[in-house]
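[Discussion] Sanity-checking designs against the backbone

I'm trying to build intuition for which residues belong where. Below is a structure token string of 313 positions. I'd appreciate it if someone posts a full sequence so I can compare it with mine line by line.
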């Protein structure tokens, strides 16, 4: 029998032999998300470096798939460990955008939950609660804050373990359509993983969020004030630096969250000061008066007066 004039084309014949990684980045518009993260968060250099590494891995994985170098869907579940107010939620939102733009999740939304959203209070209550949350999160990111509270071995009647088992199954079977990010204090997350090896084996990326330095917190305060359309006068800037120095040494400090709360209280005092001045004299105020926060507005804090050991958050 004569050989056919043409041989069947190889399945790989139409695949590219080279691919432009920068073009993948441009087409997916990933770099603007990374730039936005840089603009939103001061400091956190090691965190931002890890996000870039994960983004690079996803770009290369996409290039491999386009060239027929198929591999199993990478596990992208993560753990964000660190103290409150270090930007974990913000990074989770930007990570979801990157995953969506590179085609690893369908929607790119973030569902943020705690134990109360997943664990029921009686038999038969936990499974439907957990499954409903997972249904909402499909196609995006499920962010579980203070995830270690899911596991309470001291309580034999606790239903957290049931939620964990459902999560484990979905994290394995639907990892091509859902990314789970667990978050919380580092030491407690380490203990949680030691007690739940199945969960630990499913977390591919561990990212530690460091506390902010005093200089970084001062920069954060300035950024927050500007975002609120206020500004600190010269004495208030000094008072803010002193506040940060004192507050960091006290209990319940929550990094950027504590700074925001301090500024919110200062705005309240500023408004009351302006109102009282207006009631006692000329009721007309200028834009400058409405916009400036004084040192007195900050120094009225109990952190300075010593009325309490600390202001919560």
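Best answer:
Here's mine. Compare freely.
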């Amino acid at each position: 029998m004569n050989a056919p004039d043409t041989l069947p084309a190889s399945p790989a014949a139409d695949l590219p032999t080279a691919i432009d990684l920068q073009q993948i980045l441009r087409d997916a518009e990933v770099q603007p998300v990374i730039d936005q993260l840089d603009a939103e968060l001061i400091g956190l250099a090691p965190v931002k470096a890890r996000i870039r590494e994960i983004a690079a891995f996803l770009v290369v994985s996409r290039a491999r798939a386009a060239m027929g170098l198929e591999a199993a869907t990478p596990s992208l579940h993560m753990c964000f460990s660190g103290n409150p107010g270090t930007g974990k939620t913000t990074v989770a939102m930007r990570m979801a955008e990157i995953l969506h733009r590179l085609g690893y999740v369908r929607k790119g939304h973030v569902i943020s939950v705690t134990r109360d959203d997943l664990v029921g209070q009686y038999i038969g209550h936990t499974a439907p609660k957990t499954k409903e949350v997972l249904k909402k999160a499909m196609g995006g990111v499920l962010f579980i804050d203070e995830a270690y509270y899911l596991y309470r071995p001291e309580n034999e009647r606790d239903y957290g373990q049931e939620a964990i088992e459902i999560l484990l199954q979905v994290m394995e079977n639907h990892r091509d359509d859902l990314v789970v990010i667990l978050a919380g204090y580092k030491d407690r997350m380490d203990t949680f993983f030691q007690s739940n090896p199945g969960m630990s084996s499913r977390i591919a990326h561990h990212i530690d969020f460091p506390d902010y330095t005093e200089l970084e917190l001062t920069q954060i305060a300035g950024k927050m004030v500007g975002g609120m359309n206020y500004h600190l006068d010269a004495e208030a800037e000094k008072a803010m630096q002193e506040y940060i120095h004192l507050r960091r040494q006290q209990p319940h400090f929550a990094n950027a969250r504590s700074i925001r709360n301090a500024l919110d209280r200062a705005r309240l005092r500023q408004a009351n000061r302006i109102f009282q001045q207006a009631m006692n004299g000329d009721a007309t105020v200028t834009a400058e008066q409405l916009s400036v926060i004084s040192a007195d507005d900050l120094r009225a804090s109990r952190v300075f007066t010593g009325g309490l050991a600390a202001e919560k958050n």
